[in-house]
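fyi for ur records
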Amino acid sequence: MCNLYSLTKGQQAIRDLAGAMRDVSGNLPLFPGVFPDYAAPIVRNAPDGVRELSLARWGMPSPVFALKGRNSEPGVTNVRNVASPHRPRWLSVESRWAVARSSHAECAGRRLTS
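which gave:
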């Protein structure tokens, strides 16, 4: 996942594109900038099997070994080692969802200039 994306389409457009049968997201505004740990719309298969439009914070909890000596949970946004013993529960089918976006920026290791 990128570290910044935007969503400038309405929720009806998201429901139509994703075939979401249920909407539990409330009245969504447009999202000109979504960063890690922000709540944003997602489409997922709910536990009862219905595809739904919902809100979720995105990112992944940091592994325990990375938190030693820290008081906060910074989380990670890009997983490069899916074989890590920390990752299996977060890579399961229940934790997968689609992110609706209008545009994204992949800025890892690069400075963007205008």
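Strands lie at 4-7, 22-23, 31-34, 39-45, 51-57, 98-99, 103-105. thats all i got for now
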